[in-house]
Design a protein that fits this description.
Elements (H helix, E strand, L loop, with lengths): L1 H5 L9 H12 L18 E8 L5 E8 L5 E3 L9 H11 L3 E3 L4 E4 L4 H14 L4 E4 L1 H6 L7 E8 L2 E8 L7 H9 L4 E3 L5 E3 L3 H12 L11 E5 L3 H8 L6 E4 L1 H11 L18 H16 L3 E3 L7 H11 L6 E5 L4 H11 L5 E3 L4 H9 L6 E5 H7 L7 E8 L10 H6 L3 E8 L8 H11 L7 H15 L2 H11 L3 E2 L3 H4 L6 E8 L3 H23 L5 H16 L13 H15 L4 E5 L2 H13 L4 E4 L5 H13 L4 E5 H4 L10 E4 L6 H8 L11 E8 L3 H19 L12 H7 L4
Parallel strand pairs: 1-6, 7-12, 13-18, 13-19, 14-16, 14-17, 15-16, 17-18, 20-25, 21-23, 21-24, 22-23, 24-25
Antiparallel strand pairs: 1-2, 2-3, 2-5, 4-5, 7-8, 8-11, 9-10
Helix pairs in contact: 10-11, 11-12, 17-18, 20-21
Amino acid sequence: MEILSKGELPVSKQEYPTFSKYVLSNIEDYVDIILPLDIMMNDYHTIHLYGDIDQDDHITLRLDYINDNGAIHNGFDLDFITNYQQDLVETYISDYGNIDYDKHLAYLDENDERTYLFLNEGLDFLSNYADIYVSSQLRKLGDKAYYSIQVGVKVESQLLSLDIASDQIPVDEISHVLEQYRRKKKFYRLKNGQLLYLNSPQLDELNELLEDYHMNSKDIKDGHMTMNAYRAFSLNEDSENYQYIEMNRQQSFNDLIERFDHIETKEHPLPAYYNDILRDYQKTGIAWLHTLRDSGFNGILADDMGLGKTLQIIVLLESIDSSLPSLVVCPSSLIYNWESEVHKFSKKLKVGCVVKNADNRKLMIDAYQDYDLLVTSYDYMRRDYELYEDKMFEYVILDEAQYIKNQKTLNARSVKKLKSNARLALTGTPIENSLAELWSIFDFLMPQYLFNYHYFASRYENDIVKNHDKIKTQELKKLVTPFILRRNKKDVLTELPDKIEKTQLISFNDEEYKIYLANLAQVNSDLQKILQQEKVDNIAILSMLTKLRQICCEPRLVYENIHTPSSKLLACLEIIENLQANHQKILLFSNFTSMLDLIGEQLKQRGISFYLLTGQTPKEKRKNLVDKFQQDQTTVFLISLKAGGTGLNLTAAQAVIHYDPWWNASVQNQATDRAYRIGQTNKVQEIKLVMKDSVEEKILDLQEKKKELANTFVENNEGGLASMSKDDIRELFEMN
């Protein structure tokens, strides 16, 4: 415009088409343009694009340019000066097809993958510049492709055998088609030259099947692939939801599912002398264990404490036919309990305990074939695992399998190296804190069943714990439920007396409350610094929590210049005296052995008889103490929670006192179940002593949250999942 205001702007005839296209067409709405008669402006501002398939099955595209008077000019005309938009449309189409300027048509190749890209993406782009008119026949080429895909599944050699077939895809090319699909390719050309469009719901679903089971397309050979048979249950459930692929379950597969749906005890006759000993639910449990064995599976017997898991295993081992011995790995405190139970119930199992010094243990391990059952501890296994390298067992059984909940510990690593035909885990608490614990137990039972831990965490744990993902929760439940047998006392022991649960709130006296508040204030000051860090120092927080809990129990655990019993201890002694007056024997659990010592001193002063059991109590003395308490008139059994939460039968007690409740409710329940179990004929009182307006009250709330985790995957209940966020930690130490 500046040049024109000073004079003429010469444009050569050769440059006019370009000048008209890029300059005049852009300014004609703002200035009056007067051109010579032999030079015209392109005033065809409307573009129509027509697409169709002609009689020769060629895909054709035609462009019509229309001006305001309704005049039409063909596109794809070399003699026509196009404007900017027309030029853009013609150039875009020429990138996908071949242009016939004589017929003013563009041809697209049906076997060229660019054609399908154009139909799916190109037409949408061109709709910004042209009105699109495409025949319904051509439009179908851009829709999703539908293929007939069948998956046949059967059980063969204790594996799931899957055969994938399709009317449109040769079996030797199925894996290649899926590989291209996974690489986000839109097309695959078959060996016969046919082009497959990969936007297909059938391929979506088939790929989803592979992803769900962490399979690779390369695992498919000529349409055939195998999976471990333990995938049968989740695959059976998944198949009900498949909409596009056809799952053909053959009889061998249906038989496997049916076997677990209808476990019949008569399939596995028991030694006759057990008929009167075993309860019906125990017979069902043994049948379930046999069914696992017959199918080549392993699992978790997660019965409630006191329902006789040990007895069910003894009967299982006695009723199988094997030339190999079996091995039980358990906490140290349970070794002799296993020996005693075998001697009590079995008429033919020869049991040996791998104990004492290293030389003695080596002799026992070397002579392992002289026994039907060896029993050792996790402690000994950590030291001896190399001695088992060339030993083969029929069963390796982990009692209190939560001892391998941390996959990185030597406990977990050593037992996972053992060789056996079958494996079982026994635990009333397969989940105490996190889903990683469940993964570690399954990694022992059936390695890779829950995939590697990195995949498990990314696919399940993170979404379930952090995001409360209900779909992922259901997926994981579907995987683990068939291999966990869980029965609760309230469901199977209808003759068991009532358990009365009571939480007794105790108030601090003035001096104690001053001490508690002073420490709480200091904790909150330190806590702010810790929580500002990117990674929370859990050890420091645990230390703070422990100190506050000790003050709740007894300030003398922290301060030396206090010489009188605490409010909680006095309240506890009052409860004990009342129970003693009613001739009731008592189990008292504490996390702190030093607290048990202080309680013991007070019991002595009051002339109340008691026994004391801690982690320092020798195994032989431990059994002796239990037997004496069961038979004599001793009033109180003081037990450290860690040492006495498992493996003790103390049904002589009618009251259980938890002196200092901890957040792990399942561990406390295990402790209570020392008294509340088979053989108990009296009502059992469970009393939790809790200091009012203290961290102990907050711990009770946290117990409920943690309980939800176990309920979801073990008790088969619904519920969200809880984790300790920074807000949870702040709330725990909040001042009232």
